[in-house]
Specification:
Strand content: 5-15%
Number of helices: 14
Low-confidence stretches: 103-113, 133-164
CATH architecture of the largest domain: Orthogonal Bundle
Structural class: mainly alpha
Strand order of the largest sheet: 4-3-5
Number of domains: 3
Number of strands: 7
Distance between the termini: 48 Å
């Protein structure tokens, strides 16, 4: 039987905020692959991929290179990988490999920037899931120790990742944004970008903050920069499309949303917005298709109700 993990489980195991995990899923970076009962779940292979992504991003590696390495790892892992599988995952900064424990590893570039044994990580997974849960609303950013007492959750990159990095600023910025501290988040995102100008996720998130402040041209430049460094990132393109619609450039907005839906078919909001825009320009049949796809992905929210009403209006 395949072991499945909820987003809350993965957040506890890897000390990564649920908001970050959702963001990574939505942008097509790394995420769960099993859908059950209307919810997505992570397999153990998915869990290994998220751990690898977290560790590699912490080294300052670009998201494009991290995605390439994580994709290679998922292809290398056996479909039946489980916590006791005798594998060792290593990366030298250029190539990520999964090897049996009894085979020697010679990193191509010389220095290992990420390495972990799957059985050891499996034991960690079991230990964390055996710990009592702490209400995240009662103890913000906390986990539990073996005795049930709350303790601060810290980000644990590999030993090669010491010091202040762009990624650490990025994580702190995301946490500040989650707390509603927009000015602090903006400052930290800018620090991350100063250290790593090609960090597409930081450029996108800063663009979102600037967009909400009404600085549309500045936000547009940030989205363009993010897409220059990571063309496959759906969130930057999705927000750029919304911005273009605000600027009255509807045709360009529709083109960008089409690209999002093609690259990330599970991106529900992109289908919703594309459906609305297509209906506005007379593309009723295509609008219907995208709104129906949206309702396949989101059946119970207020926006789902709006989508159904809009579909009824189109049909009338």
């Amino acid at each position: 039987m395949i072991e499945l993990y909820s987003i809350r489980d993965v957040s506890r195991i890897l000390a990564v905020q649920e908001a970050r995990l959702r963001y990574w899923t939505q942008t097509g970076f790394v995420g769960p692959t099993v859908r059950k009962g209307g919810r997505f779940y992570y397999t153990f292979c998915d869990l290994l991929a998220v751990k690898a992504a977290k560790d590699l991003v912490a080294t300052g590696m670009t998201l494009q290179k991290v995605r390439k390495n994580v994709d290679a790892l998922k292809k290398a892992l056996p479909d039946d990988t489980h916590p006791a599988t005798k594998l060792r995952v290593c990366c030298d900064g250029e190539t990520i490999v999964a090897l049996a424990d009894d085979i020697a590893f010679q990193p191509i570039g010389g220095q290992i920037v990420m390495a972990f044994n799957v059985p050891s990580f499996g034991e960690h997974v079991s230990q964390v899931l055996a710990m009592p849960r702490v209400d995240p609303n009662a103890v913000a950013q906390r986990g539990t120790s073996s005795d049930g007492a709350p303790h601060e959750v810290t980000d644990n990159p590999t030993e090669a990742n010491g010091g202040t990095t762009a990624y650490r600023y990025f994580v702190e910025a995301c946490a500040a944004e989650d707390r509603g501290e927009s000015e602090t988040a903006e400052h930290l995102f800018r620090q991350a970008i100063d250290l790593e100008p090609n960090m597409a996720a930081a450029l996108t998130n800063l663009g979102n903050l600037i967009y909400r402040q009404g600085e549309l041209e500045d936000a547009r430049k940030l989205y363009d920069r993010a897409l220059e460094h990571d063309p496959s990132q759906p969130e930057a393109r999705y927000n750029l499309a919304n911005l273009l619609e605000d600027l009255g450039e509807t045709d360009l907005a529709i083109a960008e949303l089409r690209r999002v839906c093609a690259a990330a078919p599970e991106f529900a909001d992109a289908h919703y917005n594309l459906g609305i825009m297509l209906a506005m320009v007379g593309g009723t049949a295509q609008a219907k298709q995208h709104l129906e796809r949206y309702l396949e992905l989101d059946t119970g929210s207020d926006w789902a109700t709006h989508a159904r009403v809009f579909l009824d209006q189109i049909a009338a």
